[in-house]
Each structure stands twice: as C-alpha cells, then as structure tokens.
Amino acid sequence: MKNVLFFICLLLFLFILPGCKEENLKPENVFASYIGYWQQGRYEQMYELISESAKVAITKEEFVTRYRSIYEGIEMSNLTVAAVPHVDEGKGGASDIKKFPYHLKMDTAAGPINVDGAMQIVKNKETNQEWKVAWKPSLLFPSMDEGDKVNVRTLKAKRGSIYDRVGRELAANGSIEVLGIVPGQLGDAREETIAKLAERLAVPESFIQEKLDVPWGKDNVFVPIVNISEERLELDFSDLQGVTKREKSARIYPYEEAAAHLTGYIRQVTSEDIEKHPEKRFDPNDVVGKAGMELIYDERLRGRDGKQIAIVKIDGQEKETLAKIEPVNGGDIHTTIDAQLQDSIYRALEEDVGTSVAIHPRTGEIFALVSSPAYDPNLFIQGLSSEQWKSWNEDPKKPLLNRFTKLYAPGSVFKPITASIGLQVGVSSVDEIKTIDGLRWAKDESWGSYYVKRVRDVPVESLMDAIVNSDNIYLAQEAIEMGVDIFSREAGKFGFGKPLPIAYPFPQASLSNNGITSEILLADSAYGQGEVAMSPLHLALSYTPFINGGELITPVMELMDDEKPQGEPWGDPVLAPETAEAINRMLLEVVENPRGTGRGAYIKGSRIAGKTGTAELKRSKEEKGQENGWFVAYDAERADLLMAIMIEDVQNRGGSAYVVRKTAPVLRAYMDGR
Q1: What is the average pLDDT across 505-533?
Q2: Per-residue model confidence (pLDDT) at position 614
Q3: Where does CATH 3.10.450.100 sit in the chain?
Q4: Domain covering 340-383+401-673, topology
Q5: What kind of architecture, by CATH, is found in domain 162-334?
Q6: What is the spatial distance between Cα 670 and Cα 667, in angstroms, rounded to a whole number?
Q7: NTF2-like N-terminal transpeptidase domain: which residues (predicted)?
Q8: What is the C-alpha to C-alpha distance for residues 650 and 337, in angstroms, rounded to an integer?
Q9: Which of 288, 292, 287 has its CA nearest to residue 263?
C-alpha cells in the first residue's frame, strides 16, 4: 500500500510542480520532477534542480549540450526513467541526503539499454531548506565517472565475395598499401616533408594538410593520405621522416579488365546515395556497388553493420558496453561464370572493340560476359587519378561502356531464326531450290530503287546452301513469302519484346521500332538488318532451340545451394524437334563445308556448328558505313559450350572472317582443357 501511495505522489508532483515554490519541495518531489523532465527532454529545467556545487562543475549550456549530444549520438528514443520502490535509510545522520533508485530504459541505434541507477537528493547546507539533485556523470549512465565518454562505434559487416563456378574469386576482400603520416614523427621538418610529399604525389600541399587536420589525428596516430596505386608503386618515400606505408583491407578484382564490366566495382557512398535511399540508413563511410554484379547483388553482398555503445575512459580504454548489435556479414555470391574462359575471351579480343557471351546451351548457365576494351576496377579502390578518369572518358574506344548489355543489329547470324520459321510454318523445306540471278534483287517496281544484295552469285540454291553461303536474297524472299504477321508472330517466340529472365539488367530485344510496316523492312529483318536489335546474350540464347529439340533455354547466372542447373525452358517450345535438328545440320555445314563462311573454326575430330554475320550500320545502300562482324559457334557433339562474339569495324579486316579467326583459338583451348 505504501508503494502505491508513493507512486501516486510522484505523479501528482509532476503535475503540480510548476505551481510550487522551491523551498517547499520535498526530496521526493525533486526526484519526481527531475525524472519527469528527463523523460520529456527538458534539460534546462533539469539543470535548475541540480545542486549549487554541481553547477560550479558544469554550466547550464554544457549540461544541456552534453545530454543532447549523447542522446542524439546514440539515436535515443522511447526513454523511460522509472522510480524503484525502496526504503530510504538516510545518510549523514540527520537525513540531509536522500537516495532514490531508478530504472533507466531507452532504445538506441545499438539496441535497448536497461540500467539501474540511484540519484542522491541533498539539502542545501547553507539554508538547510532547499533540496537539490547531487548531479554527477553517473546520472547520464550509472557507470560513468568524470572524464568518461560515451562512444558509438559502427561494427562493419564484411562484404561478401563473388565467386566463379569453381570457387575462383571474381571480387574479394583483400588488402592494399596505404601511404600515410604519423604527425608526431615529422619533427621540425613538417612543412618541408609535406611539400616534398605533395610534389611526388602530384597533389596540392593543402590536400595533405586537410588529411592531417582530421579531429582524431594525434601525434602517434597513423593518418592515411593516399592509397598506393600502380602508378605510385615505384615512388620512394623512405627519405621522408614520418611518412610510412601500412596495409588496409580493400576490395580487389583479380581478373582486372577481363571481368570489369561483369563484376563492376564499389565506391564510397555519396550524399546523393544517402538522400536517395534514406531507408538504407547509409553511413558516410559505407561503400556500395556502383556497377555490374557489385550493384545488382549489393543488398546481399553488403550485409548489415552492427553498432556498439560503450563507456570509454579518458585514456581510450573501454569501460562498459551499454548496448551492442553484432554485424551480419554479407552473403557470398556463387556464379556460373568460368573465370578462365572469361579471361581467355578478353585476351583474344586484344583491345578490339567488341563483346562476347558464352553459355552452356543445355542448362542456360552463363560462362562469360565480356566487353572490350575495359577498365581496371581496382583503380577505383586504390585511388583513381583525374588523369586516368579523363583518359577513359576521352578514349574513342569507350572502355567505360558495357557492350554486352547493349543492343546491336545481328546481321546474318539472325538468318537461322528466319530459316527455322520458314520450316516450322511450311513455307519452305530443307531441299527447296530457289533460282536467283545476280547479286541484287528487288521484289518489283514498288520497291523503287531499293534492293537486297548478296556476296556470292549462286544461281541455284537450297535452304542449306543459303545458310552456308549466308545468302541475304534467299532469306529475304522466304520472309516475303511468309508475310509480316507470321514472321512477327513466330520470331516473337524467340523472346523478342520480353525482358530476359535474369537479375543482370539487359535491354529487351526488338524486331522493329513500331512494327514491321513494309515489305522492304520485312526483307531486311529476315537477315538481321532493318530494325532488328538484340543483346549478345539474347542472340546466344536464340540458338539454344537448335540444340534442345526446339526449346528456348532460360539463362542462369547464379548457382544456388550447389544445385546444378538442369535447363529450364523460357516459355513454350519455339520449334518442332525435327525443325531444330534441320537447322543444327545447316549450322554444322557452315563450319564443316570447305565453302562455309565459318570454315575457319573447323577443328578436326570435333563437330563445331556456327553462323557468321556482318551487320552494316549505314543510312543508304551506297553509303560506306561501319560493319560489325559476328560469329556464333557451339560444340554440336557435347553441346556444353556456345559462344557469340561481335567485333566492331571489321570492314577493312576481312569482315566476319576476322571474328572467326579470333574465336577459333578460344574454342580449341576450351575444348582441350575440359
């Protein structure tokens, strides 16, 4: 009963206090008032209730600032300070000191804090009337003493790694060298050392001075100045007193340029990132994925940082942990990528401007996604110089452009799709013979001056011959015969106008911009020109029905729980099995026939199928424009590798034959090494 009355009294004092005179307040009134103000965040009123001796030790401004800064720093919310029922035994004989226990509870960035404390209410010895709070740092947190501080520390989560199909690291946590200064070791030569260091690093002296002026910089503390990039490895700093090197953890990309656009890179968050994603509660020191898989899988790779709130002594020693949330490390990503094949394709391109994709045509596993030329993502971590950034941006080959996510006119490598549609709908047959005279053809006078041209003048051809010779006219006539509706409907089954079912962002392939609106556009579309646009990956996938009995295979980029992908169809079958097999035989003939345009990829003892193509980028027939060379090839016997490669500007280098020469060594090396 006494306890109930005590709490009722406390509540009454909280409401009637503003009308009371200080000299009439009893110690329990002061206590109730103080904890009431405390919960309301009314620190100025709290200060008025502390003793005169306490006010000598801390000013009102310091008192208010200390509470606010600590509570804001720990992100305090839901504060409750509850009186704990007790029997006061008094102190000092005549009970001029009263002790009131309480329970402090709050939510913070590091989780809840629950602590028990005790407050002393003392009588003014001079007047022997007023009761005041004997304030000391322990009324912030019970374990605090004078000179102690409340430290909030972020416990960084370890970023997950990205692995290839057999566990080789594509993006990992490693270390790099950092050049820095220990200020206390500079001695009298401080200004001279800073000047020499600035000269060697090619940075302003103010850049180094700003680094040294950080609040936490002390005489005996290593202050990092720059990461040591490749261009700085040869520089000697041993003669500069106080300048030293240290290692620090950092993201590393072992395959450098070869996998740059695939892995992407990470960078420190910007103010824009923080403003754009408030829900992610970014810390200014956080890093996030900025491109490639680092961006796509950022949420999983980044994990979740932890927090620790602790009382720290004046010498920096940790005294007590008040609250702690352990970090949750990021998850690893295991991909289907074959890092060796990825590297092999990139090296084969040898700075050619182009792109390549390699997949397993039965399972849909992506083995390689290559864009050439590229950049070294490690430089973003080591410290990218303005000169390097300018060089990349001004390079006409555009190494920062990710070409395997772009759309291109496929040219003649599209012809097997047109041929398969003709067979599927019964417009043509494998042995159907067409008689075609000359290198140019137009349907009739309605085409005006427009015509379709071909490279080889073969008067009599079958569909097989047309694929082997890569005859534009034959395929254009086939498309005209089937008509726009049938062509568009059947070609659409190959995934045109649909997003690729994969996490990596690829644009949708399209047959035309606004529908095939004329026979001329239909004819050009039949051999992959006109407005047909495909990404290299979509093009590679479009060949999978020829290997899988007519089924278009879903691409797979991530290995889940060590389960081997089995090859999931992407929609309904697009071809009958016999149609698929017929196209497969034609593509074998492209490589195995001495007249075939893909003969350069022939490997004795193996069965390589493929199709070459050249896409012309020009506004008129007469214009000389850029030519992009294509080659799609696969192992038709084991059906475990399919590659699509495109190289730009092949018009003066042999056209698609140049691409075949680049591809053949990669195929041989892969087949020999498996």
Answers
A1: 96
A2: 94
A3: 2-145
A4: Beta-lactamase (3.40.710)
A5: 2-Layer Sandwich (3.30)
A6: 5
A7: 26-148
A8: 28
A9: 292
Q: Is 383 left (phi over 0), alpha (psi -120 to 50) or beta?
A: left
Return the pLDDT at 12.
44
Measured CA to CA, the distance from residue 363 to residue 660 in angstroms comes to 25
CB 429 within 8 A of CB 578: no
Task: State the amino acid at position 615 in one-letter form.
Answer: A
**Model confidence at 160: pLDDT above 70:** yes
Determine whether 314 is exposed, middle or buried from the number of CB atoms within 10 Å of its CB (0-12, 13-18, 19+). Answer: exposed
- Second CATH level (architecture) for the domain 2-145: Roll (3.10)
Catalytic residue among 229, 356, 371, 412: 412
Please give the span between the terminal C-alpha atoms of the chain, in angstroms, as a whole number.
85
Q: Where in the chain is the domain with CATH 3.30.1390.30?
A: 162-334
What is the pTM assigned to this prediction?
0.83
Closest CA to 671 of 438, 407, 358: 358
Q: pLDDT digit string (tens) for 201-225?
A: 888 888 888 878 766 666 778 888 8
Q: Which helix (H) or strand (E) segment is 435 a member of?
A: strand 434-435
Handedness of CA 527, 529, 533, 539 (dihedral sign): positive
Distance of alpha carbon 640 from alpha carbon 243, whole angstroms: 55
3-state class (DSSP) for residue 472 = helix
pLDDT given for residue 222 in this prediction: 83
Q: Exposed, middle or buried, 459 (CB in 10 Å: 0-12/13-18/19+)?
A: exposed
* Sequential DSSP letters for 336-391: S--HHHHHHHHHHHTT-SEEEEEE-TTT-BEEEEEEES---THHHHH---HHHHHH
* Cβ neighbours for 623, distance < 8 A, ≥ 6 positions apart: none
Does 412 participate in catalysis according to the annotation?
yes
pLDDT above 50 (res 22):
no
Tokens of residue 519, six digits: 């026979």
Query: Cβ distance 403 to 371 under 8 Å?
Result: yes
Residues 6+ apart with CB under 8 A from 473: 436, 441, 452, 453, 454
Burial pattern 18-34, b for ≥16 Cβ within 10 A else e, equals eeeeeeebebbbbbbbb
Task: Write down the pLDDT at residue 346.
Answer: 98
**Of 557, 555, 549, residue with least CA distance to 575:** 549
> Tokens 């195995």, residue?
592
Segment (H or E) for 83: strand 77-83
AA identity, residue 390: K
